[in-house]
């Protein structure tokens, strides 16, 4: 059994994570190895700690998205546990962070306070083509990132039996995505979440169209059947777990929320029709994203510094616009029926309506604030920044009225991610013997 995870009040910066893993290897050189597997676009080393001597390989990917750092904590917890207690028949290979460049641009919120305003003011979510885990080469995509190529070569080298990607969401409940519906896996994973007081997410928007293996557990479709992002159907790259399918790898994604939303686990029917929910969501996004896009356009002639936030802001506007179109089309189709949505479905849609404008506003705010801090006093930029502060404050206040506070305790998120890894590994191991 996993020992109690210590109380956690902050998320460590990347340098601290790497020092801790290096120190763990130094303390247990006979049970571990620590090596560099590649280099990021900005010259950051990509590290991997390997623990155990099992015949089969397990690969754990921390920090798969720059703004999802709970995996940094989970890699540390899992590494300590494995060094101290055993390998479960696997050699475990743990990558603390596959996008260190992006993670560093989020470190402003790692130490808290974990409020919506502070979180989004310091958030950076890269453009899709700058997200390493989602940029694997295919016949339709040939611009993989250096981090992606390092991860690809690691998968080719290890041919892992088990691949585990550590994700965290902004709002909602806990959900799992699995590469194969192994008997007993879905209820075991769901049990991990509920045992620790984490409501399951019955209707996460990024699993639309997926087979449901059980409450809160969804089967990842083969590459080509569906996009890995419902709001970006034009994506032509593959993901790490889609790439690993060639080796018969069992993949698991665990998504835990920074803020639990009551009702994400409620299958009960509401009084709201599907058409009405989609109409409200599309209209709300159209208003909020439109206002922010207008501020971005107004500030553009006054900006001078080129940073990754430019691409991230524009990509978020494009994704939101695509999602609005998807919602409009779905609403038109749903208008022919009187179907009512469940509480969980309504929560999933509402979470998207909160999340996307907040991300866009926060990143645009960071972009323009950095310009001002660097000495840019163009009147158009100063005026736009003031208007953006007002709009950002309104978005935060609106979300804070509906999102339960405080944020989910970090130790609970880490515990669920860690125990999910061990649960899936034990079940898979029993089938391999």
Quickly describe the structure.
It contains twelve helices and eleven strands. The chain has helices at residues 14-27, 70-85, 100-104, 116-121, 146-158, 185-195, 240-244, 274-299, 308-334, 343-373, 379-402, 410-432; strands at residues 32-39, 45-51, 56-61, 90-95, 162-172, 175-178, 211-214, 217-219, 250-260, 269-273, 340-342.
Descriptive account of the structure:
With 433 residues, the protein is α/β, with parallel strands linked by helices. The chain is 46% helix and 16% strand. It has helices at 14-27, 70-85, 100-104, 116-121, 146-158, 185-195, 240-244, 274-299, 308-334, 343-373, 379-402, 410-432, and strands at residues 32-39, 45-51, 56-61, 90-95, 162-172, 175-178, 211-214, 217-219, 250-260, 269-273, 340-342. The strands form two sheets. It has a nine-stranded mixed β-sheet with strand order 1-2-4-3-5-9-6-8-7, sandwiched between helices. Strands 10-11 form a two-stranded antiparallel sheet. α2 links the parallel β3 (56-61) and β4. α9 (308-334) packs antiparallel against α10 (343-373). The protein starts with 13 loop residues before the first helix and ends with a helix. The model has no long low-confidence stretch (mean pLDDT 94).
Helix content: 40-55%
> Outline, from the CA principal axes?
globular
Question: Termini separation (Å)?
Answer: 21 Å
Uncertain runs are none
Main sheet attributes: strand count, strand direction, barrel closure: 9 strands, mixed
Provide the β-strand percentage band. 15-25%
Query: Given the structure, what is the number of helices?
Result: 12
Look at the structure and give the mean pLDDT. Answer: 94
Supply the helix-strand structural class. Answer: alpha/beta
Radius of gyration in whole Å, from Cα? 21 Å
Order of helices and strands: HEEEHEHHHEEHEEHEEHHEHHH
């Amino acid at each position: 059994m996993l020992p109690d995870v210590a109380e956690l009040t902050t998320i460590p910066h990347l340098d601290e994570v790497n020092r801790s893993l290096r120190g763990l290897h130094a303390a247990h050189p006979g049970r571990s190895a620590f090596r560099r597997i590649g280099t990021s676009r900005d010259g950051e080393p990509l590290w991997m700690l390997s623990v155990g001597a099992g015949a089969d390989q397990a690969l754990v990917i921390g920090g798969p998205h720059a703004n999802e750092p709970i995996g940094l904590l989970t890699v540390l917890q899992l590494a300590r546990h494995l060094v101290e207690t055993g390998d479960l028949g696997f050699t475990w290979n743990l990558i603390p962070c596959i996008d260190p460049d992006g993670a560093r641009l989020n470190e402003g919120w790692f130490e808290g306070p974990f409020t919506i305003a502070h979180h989004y003011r310091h958030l950076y979510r890269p453009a899709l083509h700058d997200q390493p885990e989602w940029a694997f080469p295919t016949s339709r995509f040939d611009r993989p990132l250096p981090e992606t190529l390092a991860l690809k070569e690691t998968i080719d080298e290890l041919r892992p039996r088990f691949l585990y990607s550590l994700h965290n969401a902004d709002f909602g409940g806990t959900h799992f995505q699995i590469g194969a519906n192994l008997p007993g896996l879905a209820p075991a994973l769901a049990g991990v979440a509920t045992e620790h007081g984490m409501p399951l997410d019955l209707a996460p928007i990024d699993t639309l169209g997926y087979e449901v293996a059980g409450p809160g557990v969804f089967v990842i479709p083969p590459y080509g059947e569906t996009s890995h992002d419902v709001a970006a159907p034009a994506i032509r790259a593959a993901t790490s777990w889609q790439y690993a399918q060639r080796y018969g790898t069992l993949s698991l994604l665990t998504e835990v929320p920074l803020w639990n939303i009551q009702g994400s686990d409620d299958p009960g029917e509401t009084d709201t029709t599907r058409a009405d929910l989609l109409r409200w969501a599309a209209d709300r996004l159209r208003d909020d994203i439109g206002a922010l896009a207008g501020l971005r356009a107004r500030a553009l002639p006054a900006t001078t510094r080129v940073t990754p936030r430019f691409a991230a802001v524009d990509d978020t506007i494009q994704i939101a616009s695509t999602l609005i179109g998807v919602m409009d089309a779905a609403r038109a189709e749903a208008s022919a029926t009187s179907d009512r949505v469940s509480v969980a479905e309504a929560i999933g849609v509402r979470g998207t309506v909160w999340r996307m404008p907040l991300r866009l506003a926060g990143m645009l705010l960071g972009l323009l604030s950095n310009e001002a801090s660097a000495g840019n006093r163009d009147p158009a930029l100063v005026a736009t920044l003031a208007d953006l502060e007002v709009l950002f404050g309104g978005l935060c206040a609106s979300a804070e009225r509906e999102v339960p506070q405080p944020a989910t305790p970090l130790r609970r998120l880490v515990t669920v991610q860690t125990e999910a890894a061990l649960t899936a590994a034990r079940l898979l191991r029993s089938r391999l013997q």
